[in-house]
């Protein structure tokens, strides 16, 4: 994630408080550095050229405001880093989920064992037991009949890795939470959100099992599309909250950027459309609609496929009709891409250099790549690698949409007013955006 400049330049940031030299503490404040030769409350040189003397606080003295705010900044950054690491793990999980589905592995483990399931089969007897279980489900009889224990092993490992990765995410998140909490380093007001994320993460594991279980039903060879989409939606929600929270911790100031207003109005619908297109993609994957109509832009020679509304009642076409489900995904993707390109174009033309402009550019690039990947995936009949890549790059588009929305957040209070000069004059390329004083989530 690009590192914006606000934390270093914002009026409420540590950098701004440090003064022009970037190192001198404000008068009257004290920073205990433990500099060699220092004792008691006597000033002492830091030993590094250009670093002024610091005053050591006596033991037990209240923490001076400057030191406290530096510590708060360090805590915010450390927590943000941890959340970014967890979000990256969730992203990998989404990619692994796509690979598991496309590799036909999703139904290979028929047990829900959150703890003991982390240990893979270690004996022939255990392999045989799991294979015997798999042979009882319709997918074995209808798709993989007679593929033997070696065939079973070849589909087992991806699903096992997917589940193991989920457990690791849980460990990294819960472990980090306990660590930061115990040391009193969770930024004020953030605890409820982190606890909610922990609960949602646990729920995602349960929803995953709920989805897999639907694939064991009579005559079923794949999971329920609805449950697949719910599983995907919850993953996207978790990912979005992680990323948004990390961004807010990294960039608490709201920037009053000249030229941002029309882009702000676009950023929300763009993010909404990206999510909608992704969920529509989930239905394409869920009913394997990508295996038909493998041409672009026409579908069987028509722009709008014949049989778009052939199911009754009509709403069923949205979720169960291959032609309409695929067409809707194409249509949503096209509208999304067009709106993204308008946003990116406007952003590049009107925004000054900075976070918001960079995110707009990234959003345009990610959406273009994703659209191209979608078309390639389709015309090649959804091969494993392209399908997995298409699912993974979708998360990049979502990230860029969130980043754009975040960088363009409405400034609060006094900062909401863009300085008259800045607002009146066109943004000079390379000029930094005006900074808002308000700090919030
Ligand atoms: C902004 C553009 C797009 C986004 C964000 C997007 C997103 C997604 C997502 C998230 C999935 C997979 C969901 C899952 O596996 O659970 C998906 C599946 C799919 N998408 Fe897209 N998509 C886009 C554009 C396109 C385009 C332009 C096409 C083709 C014309 C396309 C064709 C497909 C196909 C065939 C699948 C099913 C792949 C499979 O079975 O694994 N997508 N899309």
Describe the structure in your own words:
Its main location: membrane. Pathway: Porphyrin-containing compound metabolism; heme A biosynthesis; heme A from heme O: step 1/1. Keywords: Cell membrane, Heme biosynthesis, Iron, Membrane, Metal-binding, Oxidoreductase, Transmembrane, Transmembrane helix. Residues 1-57 and 417-441 have low confidence and may be disordered. The protein contains 14 helices and two strands; from the N terminus they run ααββαααααααααααα. Helix 3 (65-102) packs antiparallel against helix 8 (225-250). It starts with 5 loop residues before the first helix and ends in a 17-residue tail after the last helix. The relative contact order is 0.12. It is flat, with a radius of gyration of 27 Å. By secondary structure, the protein is mainly alpha-helical. It has helices spanning 6-9, 14-17, 65-102, 124-134, 138-144, 148-182, 191-214, 225-250, 261-286, 317-320, 322-350, 355-379, 384-407, 420-424, and strands spanning 43-44, 54-55. The chain has a two-stranded antiparallel ribbon. The chain folds into two domains: 1-6 and 68-252, no CATH class; 253-441. The structure holds protoporphyrin IX containing FE (HEM). Protoporphyrin IX containing FE is lined by residues 98, 102, 228, 232, 274, 277-278, 281-282, 284-285, 290, 296, 329-330, 333, 336-337, 367, 370-371, 374-375, 377-378, 382, 387, 390-391, 394, 397.
């Amino acid at each position: 994630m690009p590192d914006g400049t606000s934390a270093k330049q914002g009026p409420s940031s540590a950098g701004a408080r440090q003064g022009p030299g970037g190192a001198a503490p404000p008068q009257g404040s004290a920073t205990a550095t433990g500099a060699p030769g220092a004792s008691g409350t006597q000033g002492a040189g830091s030993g590094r050229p250009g670093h002024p003397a610091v005053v050591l606080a006596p033991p037990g003295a209240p923490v001076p405001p400057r030191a406290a705010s530096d510590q708060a900044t360090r805590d915010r950054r450390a927590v943000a880093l941890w959340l970014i690491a967890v979000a990256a793990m969730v992203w990998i999980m989404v990619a692994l989920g796509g690979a598991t589905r496309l590799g036909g592995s999703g139904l290979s483990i028929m047990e829900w064992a959150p703890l003991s399931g982390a240990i893979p089969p270690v004996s022939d007897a255990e392999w045989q037991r799991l294979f015997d279980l798999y042979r009882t489900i319709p997918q074995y009889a209808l798709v993989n009949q007679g593929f033997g224990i070696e065939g079973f092993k070849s589909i087992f490992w991806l699903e096992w890795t997917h589940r193991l990765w989920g457990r690791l995410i849980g460990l990294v998140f819960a472990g980090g939470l306990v660590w930061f909490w115990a040391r009193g380093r969770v930024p004020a007001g953030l605890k409820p959100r982190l606890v909610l994320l922990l609960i949602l993460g646990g729920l995602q594991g349960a929803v995953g099992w709920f989805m897999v279980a639907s694939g064991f039903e009579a005559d079923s060879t794949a999971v329920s599309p609805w449950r697949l989409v719910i599983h995907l939606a919850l993953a996207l929600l978790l990912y979005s909250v992680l990323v948004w929270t990390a961004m807010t911790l990294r960039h608490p100031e709201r920037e009053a950027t000249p030229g941002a207003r029309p882009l702000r109005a676009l950023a929300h619908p763009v993010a909404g459309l990206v999510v909608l297109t992704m969920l529509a993609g989930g239905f394409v994957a869920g009913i394997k609609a990508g295996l038909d109509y493998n041409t672009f832009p026409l579908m069987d020679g028509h722009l709008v496929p014949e049989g778009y509304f052939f199911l009754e009642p009509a709403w069923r076409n949205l979720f169960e009709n291959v032609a309409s489900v695929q067409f809707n995904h194409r249509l949503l993707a096209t509208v999304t891409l067009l709106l993204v390109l308008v946003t990116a174009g406007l952003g590049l033309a009107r925004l000054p250099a900075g976070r918001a402009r960079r995110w707009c550019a990234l959003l345009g690039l990610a959406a273009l790549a994703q659209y191209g990947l979608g078309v390639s995936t389709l015309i090649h009949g959804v091969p494993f690698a392209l399908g997995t890549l298409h699912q993974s790059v979708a998360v990049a588009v979502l990230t860029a949409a969130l980043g754009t929305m975040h960088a363009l957040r409405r400034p609060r209070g006094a900062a909401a007013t863009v300085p008259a000069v800045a607002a009146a004059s066109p943004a000079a390329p390379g000029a930094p955006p005006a900074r808002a004083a308000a700090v919030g989530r």
